[in-house]
Amino acid sequence: MIDKHKYPDEKIDLCAKQINIFSSLLDNELKDIVSMIVRKEFKKGKNLCEEGEICDSLFLIREGIVKLSKITNDGKEQILHILVKGDFFGDTNLFSELESNYTATALSDTKICILSKTKFDEVIKRNPDILIKIVKSLSQRLVSVEGLAKVLSTKNVESRISELLIKLINEHGYVTNNEYYIKLPISKLDMANYCGITRETMSRKLSKLENEQIIELRGNREIVIKDINSLKALVNADL
After folding, report:
1. Separation of alpha carbons 239 and 226, rounded Å
2. 198: Cβ contacts below 8 Å, ≥ 6 apart
3. Per residue in 96-148, pLDDT tens?
4. Running DSSP on this structure, what letter comes out for residue 8?
5. Around Cβ 237, how many Cβ atoms within 10 Å?
6. Using CA atoms, how far apart are residues 61 and 86, in angstroms rounded to an integer?
7. Cα(145)–Cα(81) distance, rounded to whole angstroms?
8. Using CA atoms, how far apart are residues 73 and 117, in angstroms rounded to an integer?
9. DSSP letter, residue 169
10. Which of 103, 124, 180, 201 has its CA 20 to 30 A from that of 1?
11. Which ranges of the chain does DSSP label H, i.e. alpha helix?
């Protein structure tokens, strides 16, 4: 982990303006926030915070990919969220001193802006609308986790994988000539952990989808969805 200096004012667009919760602020308001922010860089594979640790900062992703995961009762990793540039986490740390219920890990070399709880309190006193955005984000993530729990408990493996692919299309994909392209932000192992299955099962099921001409695998980091309707049908296959 490499500590950096605080961002100078000319870096506003890199550190604060691109972060979702700060996007509506004026330049002079952003400058106040930038003066409070500390920049850090994390190499791929490094943990930004760990489950069970007390952390009192808001983490803002300036560049890179971060996964939030926890260890289940049977000792397996369960991925909760995949976050990218403009996202943030650590919001629950700002309202209490409870232990973190997840581990945050850099999936690529990642640049992070960190705002301590003390500094955050100063920010929201002047910009209370930021607090509203954070509460909305907390609510959305709670719904997402509840949805994931339902998927893992009620859907078969094919449905879980199909739902994950649809999620990746919406968040990381693009469409060309009625085909959907996904530049995978996570590895096949992480995809497996998200779906609650083994890496071998993930590879086998993806190969099956490819044989059925629903998807096309291109190396380790790209998937082309060739039949989006069939993929969507699989999401609800056992409902």
Report:
1. 24
2. 192
3. 667 788 899 999 999 998 888 888 788 778 777 777 776 776 666 666 655 65
4. P
5. 11
6. 6
7. 8
8. 31
9. H
10. 124
11. 12-15, 27-34, 117-126, 129-154, 157-172, 188-195, 199-211, 228-235
Question: Quick check: 212 pLDDT over 80?
Answer: yes
* Residue 221 CB-half CA count within 13 A: 5
**Closest by CA position to 89, among listed 47, 123, 35:** 47
- In angstroms, what CA-CA distances link 19 with 104, 140, 239? 18, 17, 37
- Tokens found for residue 95: 């309202």
**For the chain, the helix, strand and coil percentages under 3-state DSSP, each to the nearest 5:** 45, 25, 30
Residue in this structure with the two tokens 């605080």, named with its chain if needed:
6
Computed on alpha carbons and rounded to an integer, the radius of gyration of the chain in Å comes to 19
State the CB neighbour count (10 A cutoff) for residue 143. Answer: 10
